[in-house]
Amino acid sequence: MTAMPALFVSHGAPTLILDDVPARAFLARVGGELGRPSAVVVVSAHYEATGAVRVDRSARPRTIHDFRGFPPALYEIEYPAPGDPALADEIVGLARAAGLAAETDEGWGLDHGAWVPLALMYPGADIPVVAVSVDPAAGPEHHRRLGAALAPLRARGVLVLASGSFTHNLYEIPRPFRQIDTPAPDWVGEFADWAAAAIVEGRPDDLLDYRRVAPHGARNHPTEEHLLPLFAAMGAGGMGEGGGVGRRLHDSTTFAVLRMDAYAFG
Hints:
- The protein has helices at 22-34, 72-75, 85-97, 112-121, 140-150, 186-200, 204-208, 210-213, 217-220, 228-236, and strands at residues 6-10, 39-48, 53-56, 102-105, 129-134, 158-164, 246-250, 253-254, 258-259, 262-265.
- The chain has 266 residues and is an alpha/beta fold.
- Strands 5-2-6-1-10-7 form a 6-stranded mixed β-sheet, with helices on both faces. Strands 3-4 form a two-stranded parallel ribbon.
- Helix 1 (22-34) packs across helix 4 and helix 5 (140-150) runs parallel beside helix 10.
């Protein structure tokens, strides 16, 4: 079984699955480039839980249309991938062994942070998927530790897919919202360039402390949930424990303030 990397992708707006933009084209080809994983463990910014890591144990995860006001075609999309209850139980055990509180969740499913990229990467929906939560109150180091707990799964061909957004300030999307190709302002580009350099140069401590040391860190992420999956990918790929760097797979922008960058670790 070929070991899989840990991947961070930016899932953008739910319409990414329909929009003719570079990020969609990237996701549509990267699954074939990676090869077929034995399973996917997806850490999504839209699966939030506090106090304990939640791991979806559904045998048939439901497709969650967790958005409003979008084109009707989006609500008709289903991603009927199977779950893997045994893998979910194993993930809970790995998290607990790493000192993290963790429990299974029988009622979540796949939110759009999970099914939008997966439907582009593996459209057959025939690979088992297990969703793992983020905790917006826990901070970057918690999520790096969570990712590190998932790292052993990669040797068995499990893809750790962390889905968020490299920048994510919805308050500053230029109006009207439909101008998807509006160029990024300087404060978005400066943050993304800084973070890209920290990833490829192997500076995990700077990344973990991004709100203090990165240019415009808090402005690009007024809330942290969309960047927290990045730290899970870092941990799963070995960055932050004994070295390791990431490599950039894609960079582009949608709606001016959503950097759609993707990185592989390990």
